[in-house]
Amino acid sequence: MKKQAALYARVSSAEQIDGHSLDFQIEDMREAAKRDGFAIYGIYRDEGFSAKSDKRPEFQRMIADAKAGRFSRIFVWKFDRFARNREDSAIYKGLLRRCGVSVVSVKEPTDSESPSGVIHEGLLDLLSEWYSADLKQKMGRAKRHRADSGLYNGDLPFGYAKACGHDRCTVKDCSNNLPAPLPGESQAVLEAFTRYAEGRASFAEIAEGINALGFKTRNKRKSTAYGLTGPRPFTKDSVRDMISNPFYCGRVRYRGETRDGKHEGIVSPELWERCEAVRLSRKQRPRTWSGQYRPYMLKGIARCADCGERLWAGTTKGGAYYAERSKARGIDCPSGGGSIRVDALDAQLDNMIRNVRLPRAWQRLTLNFYGGLDERMKAERERERAAAKLKRVRQVYLDGGMTDAEYRAAKAELEALVNAVVEPIERDMLDAGRMLERIGEVWPDMTTEQRHEVLAEMLDAVLVDVPSKRLLAVAAKPAFRALWQACEGSVRPVQGDEPGDSDSGCGDPEGIRTLDLHRDRVAC
Q1: Nearest alpha-carbon partner for 25 in 7, 12, 4, 52
Q2: Is residue 364 a contact partner of residue 358, using CB atoms and an 8 Å limit?
Q3: Is residue 47 classed as helix, strand or coil in its secondary structure?
Q4: How many CA atoms, within 13 angstroms, populate the side-chain half-sphere of residue 62?
Q5: Inter-residue contact 152 to 247 (CB < 8 Å)
Q6: Boundaries of domain holding 472
Q7: Phi, psi of 261 (to 5 degrees)
Q8: Based on the structure, what is the number of domains in the chain?
């Protein structure tokens, strides 16, 4: 059986424009894996994400799979695809080494086993971080200079296009690249400003009018679970951003400072000022009814099972609801929208948590999920023995039975042994199991805020079928995934749409399913 390897490809938004294709990276990595005798377990692709941060969905999924022992090598095109931050590089490479996984660069081959290879790889990480810092500084100066010269930074807003017609041209290679009003879109922008200045429409009503003309926003949204999405239909929020953007009256804004721009405005400065006055007056207008702040147990966690979008938590005079708002976001969701009362959904989750029952042999079951059960259990026993011996040595020293030098030597040896086995035995997963063992006891005494914090630590999402108002599945975080799977069948939501309703047949007699949000995306 061939050894298994993972391929990791990454490209930022700017690099995508410059032609650093993900497919090009993957092709080179495939050849390297084949040459070294590895079968490809999986390909992990992060598009539009910077390597200066580890908050990349596919990167984190790859690390979780590596800790689970699913492959023994990670191929990257260059080390800066893996990380452009020395601290992140050292932490994750160290973690992977303890899991028996090596990171290999196709274009920067090094011998990580030799002293010179370690130095070489460290220098490459240092150069990657220096390059990012130097580039950031240079880009900051360039953007400041462009703003001082009356030129824009970033993407062009809705209503504008390059006068030369080439979206990717720059100041250096085109003398006619100033933004120019785009026919059709610019008329929609002017109409939006006019209607708002005259007080004839709200942001939401203006958004409906622009959408009726078939236009969409130009912005793209970066989601840690779903990657880059967009453009989308206009919402009241996107119209609010448009109305408050001085670019439309011929000005440019950079870091809170506004200057006269060289481009042609779509609206006059007077019209923009009138809109700004209306916007501020409406913002300051007192509400006829304002609900008090209330916490929500599943805020940011509950998702629609059909489209995967988060449910919005809110309170009206009629009560508190989790609402499916895909239509307002410009998403075609099969559920057709709708809402579920907060107390109804919370009751299902509450009943599920109260009935969590881990199998008696949960440690063996979950460790087996990650592989290497015997080795991991042996390492855990060694760690516990070393920790207990460390306590005894300390007591002997306090009782005068050891010299300072003997105590320091014994303490250093035992601490090294304890630390050496922490990562291989999946300490986070074992801690997660101990947390679940007691959750049924402490859950009833928790406040809503405390319950939200606990759920956010355990779950990526709770999948809800909004039309039937049923809780269908939970997407557990990596450390809890095996534990939830061990509990499947024993955790069930309360029967019914509303608390106390046991006859509607909306409960799930088979229990709650557990899924991997990044692999399965949508549960049903």
Answers
A1: 7
A2: no
A3: strand
A4: 31
A5: yes
A6: 302-359+432-520
A7: -100, 165
A8: 4
Cis peptide before 493 (omega within 30 of 0): no
Strands 302-304 and 102-105: what pairing?
Answer: unpaired
Whether 345 and 464 have beta carbons less than 8 Å apart is answered as yes
Q: Averaged in consecutive runs of 10 residues, what is the pLDDT profile of the chain (524 residues)?
A: 88 54 84 92 84 79 89 89 75 83 85 56 58 61 79 84 59 60 92 89 88 84 51 85 91 86 90 88 57 77 87 84 80 82 90 78 61 57 76 76 77 69 52 73 84 86 90 80 67 46 38 56 39
Alpha-carbon distance of 394 to 398, in angstroms, equals: 6
Residue 49 falls within a domain, yes or no? yes
Residue 13 in tokens: 């938004």
**Same structural domain, 333 and 372:** no
Tokens of 253: 């804004």
Report which residue type is found at 169: C
Show which of 284, 314, 349 is a domain's final residue.
284
What does the block give as tokens for 120? 């070489």
Residue at a domain's end among 430, 445, 479:
430
Query: Angle 236-243/203-212 helices, nearest 10 degrees?
Result: 100
Cα–Cα dist 109/88, whole Å: 20
Residue among 471, 472, 229 at smallest CA distance from 331? 229
Residue 386 lies in a domain: yes
Q: What is the 3-state secondary structure (H, E, C) of 65-114?
A: HHHCCCCCEEEECCHHHHCCCHHHHHHHHHHHHHCCCEEEECCCCCCCCC
Residues 6+ apart with CB under 8 A from 139: none
Indicate yes or no: pTM above 0.70: no
The C-alpha atoms of residue 26 and residue 303 are separated, in whole angstroms, by 33
CB 493 within 8 A of CB 513: no
**Do residues 232 and 330 touch, judged by C-beta distance below 8 A?**
yes
**How distant, in Å, are the alpha carbons of 25, 164, 288 from that of 446?**
49, 62, 34
Backbone angles phi, psi at 12, to 5 degrees: -85, 170
CB contact burial 489-501 (16+ within 10 A = b; e otherwise): eebbbbbbbeeee
Q: In what order do the strands lie in the sheet with 513-515?
A: 302-304, 459-465, 470-476, 513-515
Torsion of CA 497, 498, 502, 503, to 10 degrees: -50
Q: Can you tell me the distance from the alpha carbon of 264 to that of 187, in angstroms, rounded to the nearest whole number?
A: 14
Residues 267, 248 contacting (CB under 8 angstroms)? yes
203 and 322 in a common domain: no
- For 388, residues 6+ apart whose C-beta sits below 8 A from its C-beta are none
